[in-house]
Structures are given as structure tokens and as C-alpha cells.
Amino acid sequence: MIRTRSLVSEGSSRLRRLAPLALPAAWGAVAVGWKFGCPPARQPGLPMRVVTSVVFLTVGVGLVVGVRRGLVRELARVRAVAVATQQVLLRPPPARLDGLALAAGQLSASPGASVGGDLYEAVATPYGVRIVIGDVRGHGLAALGAVVAVLGSFREAAHDEPELGGVLRRLERALDRHLRERGREEHPAWSATDPEHPVAEEFVTLLLLEVASDGRLAVFNCGHPGPYRLGPVVERLPLGEPLPPLGVLPLPGALAPYTAARLLPGETLVLHTDGAEEARDHQGRFFALDTALAGVPGEAPAALVRRVHTALLHHTGGRVTDDVALLVVRNDRFRVPAQPAEPGLRRSRPAPSSHC
Predict the structure, then answer these.
(1) What is the pLDDT of residue 336?
(2) Is the Cβ–Cβ distance between 294 and 66 less than 8 Å?
């Protein structure tokens, strides 16, 4: 029954693809019938040649128009699938998450692609808001497998693991499984046993953060560019000693996040991939991301993402050579100032003793 439905669906799909050619084919049949079946068409003379040329020209134009309409419809379906894939794979973060305002955006280096080798996600958990941003070596559609592996693992581990180090180890194991599966596919002779280094040239740099309710940050940096903190000034957030990118070397046995940084109320954190700072103009000059971030104080995250993307495209002449991802987080939690004691309580407090 299922196979029958599949065959019917496949047949109807073929008919839809061939439908744009029906009218040109009918015109072609008329033209051939006119040329070989109509006695006046075989008569010599300029008028008959003109009529015959018009018939065949009409057939040609109809064929081109029919094929073009079919290609336009097919392109629209492909774009719809790409948009749906992006919404699932790199879904936009919620505008507000546990007191934080968020926005994200990506520019793909692959023409026509809406997803590439960059990844980001933010989720609210019982342990705080956990955020990941990463960059798979390379760009474009070939890097999607590693993006799927890392994001899928993060979306589960962020809720399950009480310690941020446990989340990082889950990401490492997910990427390792993906690379070994790719190794078996690329080298079938190794299918009986896993190769020791299946895809040695593929790795992922990433930044894993946890924002506590009081703004304290816990950060693991695996070879990724550090974020910028926007407050009174634009500054690179210190992250301590970085770990190697995932997929290059195993993580150390003991994992301790960097916890000496905070995101105070009103401050903004801008996480990015290296494509944002390595983009060049026609003279080879790098894009000054820190200068572009020094804009309007307290700017909404979505507006900041749009402004930086506009400046970056203007700098590169409208075409980036590497995927660029931005994730902006603003702390909108309010700090409650210390309140003075109530007057009644202040009067009832006993005076200090004067006895020696």
C-alpha cells in the first residue's frame, strides 16, 4: 500500500514537472503538421515561407516560456525548503529570554544558501541561560553535517547537564560520532572498525556561555574569537586560557569555565564568528568590527545586527567570502538598589551603650 502511494506520488510529481511543456509540445505538433500535412505549406513562395517561419518561431518562444515557468516554480519550491530548513536548523532566538534581549543573524558565503558552517543557539535552563556559537572549518553546505551534530547535542545537553563542562563534553562526543560516521562513508574499507582520525581536517571552534540570574558569566572558549561587551566602552571580553577547537585534540580531564566576567544590567554582549573580523574590502583591509559596534548606546539587539550586517556588506562590496554569524545579548534585568531603613524601625533601634 505504501509503495503504491509512493509510485502515485512520484507519477503525479513527474506530471507536474512536465505540465509546462504540454502547450509548447502541442504547438510543435501543430507546426510539424502544418509543414508536412498541409499542402499550402509546401508551396513555394515568400508568403508561405513567412507563415511557416512565424509558426516555428511561435513554437520556439512557447517552449522557452514554458521551460522558464517550470524553472521559476521549481526555484520557488527550493527556496521555500531552504527557508524551512534554516528555521529548524538555525532558528532565530526568542526576542526575550529570562530577562535577556536577543537577536541573531547570518550571512552565508555560498551564493543562494541561507545556512552555512556557522551555528548559534540560546536556551533558558534551570541553571541559567546557556548560549553557544560556533564555526565549522570551511563554509557553505558541506559543513551542515557538523552543524546539525553540534546543535542537536546542545539542545539536549543544555537542559540535562547541571555543569557547563558536561555540556561541552556532550558536544565533543556528538562531533566525534559525526566525524567517525563520515570517515566510514568516505573510506568504506574501514567500515569494520572506526578509524582513529576519520576526518582530521574538520573541526569546530565554539564559545559556550552560561548567564546566571545575577549576570555572572561562565565561559568555555574552544579556539573561538572572544565576544565584545558594549557598555560605557566597547571592549573585548576576557576569557582566560582557550581550549583547543573540538575535533582537533581531546578535551582535558578537568574542565573549569572562566567565571571572572559579568554582564551587568544594560550591557550588551556581541558574539560573532571569525568571518566578521576577517572580511576584507577590495584593498585588502579588514572589517573593523569594534568600530562598527560603537553605535547608539542601548541599541536594540535586532537593530544592532542589521546595522553591522549593512556595514559589513558595504565594506566587502556586497559579497562575503566566509560565513558570518552574529548573536547579540543585552541584559535587560533590573538591578534593585538597596533601600534605606524605614523611619519607624530607625527610631526604635536602641542607642549604643556608653558604658566603658
Answers:
(1) 47
(2) no
